[in-house]
Write a structure and sequence with these properties.
It is built from 21 helices and 30 strands. It has four domains: 90 residues, no CATH class; 155 residues, Glycoside hydrolase, family 3, N-terminal domain (TIM Barrel); 217 residues, Rossmann fold (3-Layer(aba) Sandwich), CATH 3.40.50; 137 residues, Immunoglobulins (Immunoglobulin-like), CATH 2.60.40. It is α/β, with parallel strands linked by helices. The N terminus is likely disordered.
Length: 839
Amino acid sequence: MQFGGRRLMGMRKRGAGCTGPEACCLVLLALFCIDQCKLVESAAATHAGQVQASAIQQQQQQQQQGAGPSSLRLRGVGALEAAQQELPPWRNLNLPVTDRVADLVSSLTQDEKLGLMNNYQQPVERLSIGGYQFWTECLHGHQERGSGAVPTIFPQPLLLASSFDDSLAWQVFNAISDELRAKDNAEYAKTGNRKGLVCWTPHVNIFKDPRWGRGSETFGEDPVLTGRMALRVVQGLQGSDPTYKKIVATCKHFLGYGMEGAEGYSRYSHNTNISPQDLTDTDLPPFKACVQGAGALGIMCAYNAVNGTASCASAPLLKKLLRSNMGFDGYVVSDCNAVQALEWGHKAYPSMRDASAAAVKAGVDLFCDKADELKPALAEGLLAPSDIDTAVNRTLAVRFATGQFDLPRLNPWADLPISTVNGRMSRLLARTVVQKGIVLLKNKAPAGSSKPLLPLDKSALSKLCVLGPLANSAEHMMGNYYGKFDADVAATPLQGIQEELAGSGVKVEYAQGMDIMGQIHYDWPLETALETCQGADAAVLVIGSSMIENDKSPDGSLRPAHEGEGLDRNNLDLPGRQADLVRALARRAPGLPLVVVLFNGGGLDVGWIDRLPAASAMLSAGFPGQEGGRGIADVLFGRVNPSGRLPITWYHSNYAYRVSQLDLRMRPDATSGYPGRSYRFVSDASYVLYPFGYGLSYSSFEYSQLRLLKNEEDGCVSVGAEPAFCLRVTVSNSGGAAGEHSVPLFLSHETARGKDGYPLQSLRAFKRTKLLEPGSSEDLEMLLSQSDFVMPRPSDGVDALHLGPWEFTVGSFKGAAGSGGQVGSMPAASITAEVTLPY
């Protein structure tokens, strides 16, 4: 007998204290032994069949008020089926989910349906259906704002992307979904309500402008890297169970979102012009990875308009492109206030009533907004009842998919305890992300030494000074969308360093130096910081950007963070007067070896620090989450070898002055002098500080035996039905430190690149080595399919296969800036091959 895709088999032995055949507890039926027998539950992964009848029994009881256990004497499979037939179809576990959903929708009154159009779906007490809050954030951990267990705060997604490790992305979001399920289990046991089974994650927009305040929520500027990470995030959240989704993922923001506010426009009124080429090879691929690759059940439409039509009122986007062309079959939710903004932002509709009706007609199923105007819109004929039915059908299908209308213990995660939340394994995983994501930007020898400053040698230190406004602030590590964190668990850079040096005899002294925003009278803290470093053997300076609200700005008024949702950066400079602290150390303690640690979302123009002789080393730590301090210390002292690569281009300030935030086109325009965006299109090296994929190491790696194999040649395996190539390369650790190494593969068409809107080069694959000891090597293989050799036509943006000579480059792409001959500089190897498909 089938239950939601599972076959129920087996029977349980008689329970203790049960006597007689009527009182036996059966596996299939899980009957109550009247007044004597207790239901014995086993592990979640194996007990679905054992508790099935108990689920049916309890669901039946909900429909038969006043019926006690004595009225539910079921015997055998036939009795089970009979019991199911007595339930309303939407409660019948034997029916397909589509039939159950359709029956429930048909059972609702119009007002009850309207109560399900908002992100908080109202309870339907008549049918014993509880209310449910769709709005749960898990960008890099559950955004807990209540009194529940404090979740693990992982690094922001941009730092995760720096690892170039999509398997790590799966691990992180599998852990996050475990924590969410554990919290749901606890909530259900306590209140009978369900919690946090739909997440508005991942954020898969492309990070186009370096000033964008939400860039750190993304996976960077490359659509392939973003798509690969997004796919694994969705898989980690939704799980692989054939019956239930662990957590429903909601990929956002569809489509073309990339600014908060600039030049008189906000995200509520901005129109993003997307060319057919940009749509095909930049904006759409991550959403295709979500929908077609991973089967995401949720999409959030964006605030902005696309080519003149607001995203949340665009049937061409939501119905034709998303559903018809891409095959999406889940629910669409508006971003919060996006429906209201149709009226007062885009000014596309004269009233909220018209805007609400337009959104539903266009394909929005759930408002993160008030839905009050839908009832009068129905009365006035702006909407048909069938429009509401369609929307409610989709959102209820999501709730069925998470098992909300079945007992929680029927799902494989029912036994996850609350101790799962922020447990030891999650904390270790968060630390691993920091270790793998940190990008080493600079590592040179201090004056008088022939050895690079990092990793710091404990035996050569007697005193280490730790400075900077971010050195001992846990909150500044968290980024955004974290809700709250456990201060007893989190470790700041100062605390991480102190833990690392405990018992070593090295004295650690700390001074803040200044507030993150700087101060009017900042001379005293500055002098204190300089005094703290007297007699030190080295200094670690932690500076950068902030995504939290600060108590005071330099003029004494309240001032928000430097970047974040609703707030783009004005420029690419270090915020406040932090540059003064760097310069003061360099000028007044020129012999002090200095390590600069940056907290940042987008890139910062720190080229002047890169050129500063006193600053021997510099690394980017993003917003590293609760384990940030420990992961940073691991890198500083060589417990791990940095292997992160930048998932975005870091620009000089002149780039930000040259491009408007309102113009998010990817392709350059020679007529206007517009340089384009990202490493795929910007050809002027004078704009670039650090290129996409940049990242140093404590060791040196070499590539050899780069070779391209055709399908079925020497073990090369086809990708699906398409002809394939396999690119193989041997990666060797030629340095003196063990380490991992990520290897990106770039493709560039020899004759078309840079012409007619074709990219200069494009990432097509990436892989990480295992931990390589000095002198060891590993053979890597990356598969390429026919689709990797297509590029969108200039005329209509349709993908077209390009044959002829292609250049295959591993490591550093063609034209990338070098790394000044530093140890651990980026290796590269290229081959050019004639591609003929099919062959």
